[in-house]
Automatic annotation (TrEMBL):
<dbReference type="Pfam" id="PF11387">
    <property type="entry name" value="DUF2795"/>
</dbReference>
<protein>
    <recommendedName>
        <fullName>DUF2795 domain-containing protein</fullName>
    </recommendedName>
</protein>
<dbReference type="InterPro" id="IPR021527">
    <property type="entry name" value="DUF2795"/>
</dbReference>
Length: 73
């Protein structure tokens, strides 16, 4: 997959699409917790890549995650 196509796939990810792969997460959760949960839920690489761009902080709710995801759009 070339870089341009990969970037386009990430651009199409909405906060709701990312949240889908966080099913079962317990809050508060760290960035690493989010990544681990997404991996456990078999998230595609594009979702993991977005989560890796998140700030290293504690997320207290799915709303916090959605707000951070919007920054990555």
């Amino acid at each position: 997959m070339n870089r341009k196509r990969s970037k386009k796939m990430v651009d199409q990810l909405t906060p709701i699409a990312i949240e889908k792969y966080l099913k079962g997460i317990s809050f508060p959760a760290s960035k690493n917790d989010l990544i681990r949960q997404a991996e456990d839920n078999q998230a595609p690489d594009a979702v993991i890549n977005v989560l890796e761009e998140f700030s290293d902080k504690e997320y207290n709710s799915v709303t916090d995650v959605a707000q951070e995801a919007k920054k990555s759009e």
